[in-house]
Write a structure and sequence with these properties.
Elements lengths: L2 E2 L3 E4 L2 E4 L7 E2 L10 E4 L2 E4 L4 E2 L1 E6 L13 E6 L13 H4 L6 E2 L2 H10 L3 E6 L8 H14 L4 E6 L5 H7 L5 E5 L5 H8 L3 H11 L4 E8 L7 H14 L5 E5 L13 H11 L6 E4 L8 E2 L6 E6 L2 E4 L18
Parallel strand pairs: 9-11, 11-12, 12-13, 13-14, 14-15, 15-16
Antiparallel strand pairs: 1-6, 2-3, 3-4, 5-6, 7-10, 8-9, 17-18, 18-19
Helix pairs in contact: 2-3, 7-8
Cofactor: [4Fe-4S] cluster
Pfam families: Radical_SAM (PF04055)
Keywords: 4Fe-4S, Iron, Iron-sulfur, Metal-binding, S-adenosyl-L-methionine
């Protein structure tokens, strides 16, 4: 569905969209880099409002979120379009193409989310929720105004302007932010974006909601121990309790580099653990991704195959009293 977009201004014969840091200047009947925001008669329109291309109820651990409502299920929905163009995108069929979609009114999605059995909330994921902004905002606002206990989650690349993020944050409970690497060169060449705005999003979001970080380690591109250490130090300066998920890359979409060596992932985990309390490994079978107390090593949350058994009832370790930053 087409709908008038937010965060734009008219500049001469073009529209300046400032939803994300690309700051596209869009001519008549042209689209921004995201592929879903277009200039129609000098008015910015979004073409994916309410268009749902994928929907599933999943364990929240699949987002991945390990320290937010562990052991619960969450409704996950996505549309189409993205403001990055990562060559390794696992969801390229909806992020880089125009798939079949179904229009759902925001009120209907909010009510469905709230009334779904054994459901903790909604996660906007699969494609980039930033460029689905107007719909995400309307659904999240409705949920928080009418079902305050229902949680709102964003799984995002973090490429959003501060003005847009500030408007949305009162209605967001948790974010998993992709920190795709730690160099401007990598972001520019591989993702067609830039690093600094993502860092700023992480810093801001960590002050206002629960945040976890995912980094896909791609063979020979961003999997050096030095880069992993830079990422870990950056996060530790914000909060050493931010969970970091180091995920193994496999060839997909436009990238045919070999899969990241498992030993590389494990060494990266060890290096990151020198700075962060919680570092998990993704896309590697038979890994122990349970949560242990950083102080006494007591098992707090046991995870097997994306299912969690929670052994704590509050935010303190039952053995030593160490404060555990987890939302139960």
């Amino acid at each position: 569905m087409e709908k008038k977009a937010m965060f734009y201004e008219i500049k001469g014969e073009k529209i300046h969209c400032f939803l994300c840091p690309h700051n596209c200047h869009i001519g008549e009947n042209q689209f921004g880099l995201c592929g879903v925001r277009t200039n129609k008669d000098m008015e910015l329109k979004t073409i994916n409002y309410g268009e749902i291309a994928s929907a599933n109820q999943d364990p929240i651990e699949k987002k991945p979120l390990f320290h937010f409502k562990p052991g619960t299920l969450i409704l996950s929905v996505g549309s189409f379009g993205c403001n990055f163009a990562c060559g390794f995108c696992q969801n390229y069929s909806i992020s880089q193409e125009r798939p079949k979609s179904e229009f759902v009114e925001p009120k209907k999605l909010a009510d469905t989310t709230a009334n779904l059995d054994n459901n903790t909330g909604i996660a906007f994921t699969y494609n980039e929720p930033t460029i689905w902004y107007e719909y995400v905002y309307d659904v999240a606002k409705d949920l928080k105004e009418n079902y305050e206990d229902i949680k709102v989650v964003l799984v995002t690349d973090g490429y959003i302007t501060k003005e847009a993020l500030e408007k949305l944050m009162p209605y967001v409970d948790a974010m998993n932010i992709d920190l795709k690497g730690f160099s401007e060169e990598y972001y520019k060449k591989i993702c067609r974006g830039s690093l600094k705005p993502v860092m700023e999003t992480i810093e801001y979001a960590a002050k206002h909601c629960h945040v976890e970080i995912t980094t896909l380690l791609v063979s020979s591109l961003n999997d050096s121990l030095e880069e992993v250490e830079e990422i870990s130090k950056f996060l530790a300066q914000i909060n050493k309790n931010i969970p970091l998920h180091l995920s193994r890359y496999f060839p997909t979409y436009k990238m045919n580099l070999p899969a990241t060596e498992i030993n590389t992932i494990l060494e990266a985990q060890k290096r990151a653990q020198e700075h962060l309390n919680y570092v998990f490994v993704g896309n590697v079978p038979n890994m122990d991704n349970s949560t242990y107390c950083p102080k006494c090593k007591e098992l707090l949350i046991d995870r097997q195959n994306m299912m969690a058994q929670v052994y704590i009832t509050d935010t303190e370790c039952p053995t030593c009293g160490y404060e555990i930053e987890v939302v139960l």
